[in-house]
Amino acid sequence: MKDLLITSAQTEKRQLILCEELKEADVRYELFADSTENSEYPYSYGIAVKCGEQEARIADITEKYEYARELFERIMLYMAMPSELEYIAEDYLCEKYTV
């Protein structure tokens, strides 16, 4: 199986904020924060989905924790697989940032 790895520029410090597992589906969801050099928004949030040997990770999705948490919960609600992370994140960001 091919791993899907989606990243942007990563910073030196990363911390895991939330982690949820669906044991019956062998899926793990992670919400993480990377430190930034921006004093107004000190963190940039990302999400990872792992299922068996597959993993998708998108860093620097948003600087707003509320948006990252809402997206994280949506991904868990949909029981998203790694291959679906990019599409769900893209749709969510379009909802939030499109006028």
Task: Describe the 3D structure.
- With 99 residues, this protein is an alpha+beta fold.
- The protein has one domain (14-97).
- Helices cover 26% and strands 36% of the residues.
- It is built from two helices and four strands.
- It has helices at 65-77, 85-97; strands spanning 14-22, 27-35, 43-51, 54-62.
- It has a four-stranded antiparallel β-sheet, with helices on one face.
- A hairpin with a 4-residue loop joins strand 1 and strand 2 (27-35).
- Helix 1 crosses helix 2 (85-97).
- The longest helix has 13 residues, at 65-77.
- 24% of the residues are buried.
- The model is unreliable at 1-11 (pLDDT under 50).
Q: How much beta, percentage-wise?
A: 35-45%
SSE pattern, N- to C-terminal: EEEEHH
Biggest sheet record: 4 strands, antiparallel
Count up the domains. 1
Taking the alpha carbons of the first and last residues, their distance comes to: 38 Å
- Quickly give the structural class: alpha+beta
- Cα-based radius of gyration, to the nearest Å: 13 Å
Determine the fraction of residues in helical runs and give it as a percent range.
25-40%
The coarse overall form would be globular
**What is the total tally of β strands?**
4
The strand order across the widest sheet is 1-2-3-4
Number of helices: 2
- Poorly predicted segments: 1-11
What characteristics describe this protein?
single chain, 99 residues, alpha+beta, 4-stranded antiparallel beta sheet, 2 helices, 26% helix, 36% strand, disordered N terminus
